[in-house]
Amino acid sequence: MNGLANLHALPATPGFHELPAGELQFLRFGLARARAGEVIHLNTQDREALLVVLEAPADVRLAAGARELRLPPRRSVFSDGPAALYAPAGTDLELRGPLLAGVFQAPAPDSGGEPYAILPHEIDTLRRGRANFARQVRDILPASRPATRLLAGETLNPPGNWSSSPPHKHDRHDPPREARLEEVYLFRVHPAQGFALQHSYHAAGPSRTFAVGDLDAVAIPAGYHPVVAAPGYDLYYLWCLAGEGRELLWAPDPAHAWVDVA
């Protein structure tokens, strides 16, 4: 138990495949894959949930409690913007294929709130970094949207570029300097035979580096966690955080913080 990131390869079979909890206290992630005509049933029980569409050739039909919702098609995370569904604790979800989606969950009280859709035109796209750490960020579930713990978005790295860089961490609850937030990354790579490198380390402790491929997931309970795309390959990752509060406060690694202003 050292707080470093852990790599998980998710099955390519239909159904709902959830990451082991491991060192994560607040955040859970699962991959939902349904073929045409198949239905996946989920009950959030005492957790809020966020479903983000990764692939869907047609409108996505969802039942969230008593509500029927539709999300638009998404051919690819590299060509189309995201759509998502937020569901408060205690919501019964019914997902109809064909669909590939990421589902994040975090413990939350029954707020009495309603499920709601997040559509592509409602999502802000930001450009962050510069030079070979420039990337594009889509802010799916910022703190301004109703939720209890979850914060989520997606990042697109051009080939050879870095993100989560300069390295930062968010594992100590000390606002306004830093918030304790666990994180999960789900990766997509184009073309799919490519890879990226995910580094995880503590300033005065162990480190770990993974080669991550298409549909690999990384759980990040603590520590710094920069990532880089291999040359020639576009990199996408869906990310979500949950922990203490919903302020996205991170602390840069002092050894590398100078890169921001150089």
Structure description:
The structure is a single chain. By secondary structure, this protein is mostly beta strands. The chain has a single domain, classed as Jelly Rolls (Sandwich), CATH 2.60.120. The protein contains no helices and 23 strands. The chain has strands at about 5-10, 15-20, 30-35, 40-45, 45-55, 60-65, 65-70, 85, 90-95, 100-105, 115-120, 125-130, 135-140, 150-155, 160-165, 170, 180-190, 195-200, 205-210, 215-220, 225-230, 235-245, 250. The strands form 5 sheets. It has a 7-stranded antiparallel β-sheet with strand order 1-20-17-22-14-13-12, with no helix packed on it. A hairpin with a 2-residue loop joins strand 6 (about 60-65) and strand 7 (about 65-70). The mean pLDDT is about 95.
Characteristics:
6-stranded antiparallel sheet, mainly beta, 7-stranded antiparallel sheet, 0% helix, 262 residues, Jelly Rolls, 23 strands
Q: Number of DSSP strands?
A: 23
Give the class-level CATH name: Mainly Beta
Number of helices: 0
In the CATH scheme, what's the topology name? Jelly Rolls
Reading side by side through the largest sheet, how are the strands ordered? 1-20-17-22-14-13-12
Helicity range of the residues?
A: under 10%
Distance between the termini: 36 Å
SSE topology sketch:
Elements: E1 6-9, E2 15-18, E3 28-34, E4 39-43, E5 47-55, E6 60-64, E7 67-71, E8 84-87, E9 92-96, E10 99-107, E11 116-118, E12 124-128, E13 135-141, E14 151-157, E15 162-163, E16 168-169, E17 181-190, E18 196-201, E19 207-212, E20 216-220, E21 227-229, E22 234-243, E23 251-252
Antiparallel strand pairs: 1-20, 2-3, 3-10, 4-9, 5-8, 5-10, 6-7, 6-9, 8-11, 12-13, 13-14, 14-22, 15-21, 16-23, 17-20, 17-22, 18-19, 18-21
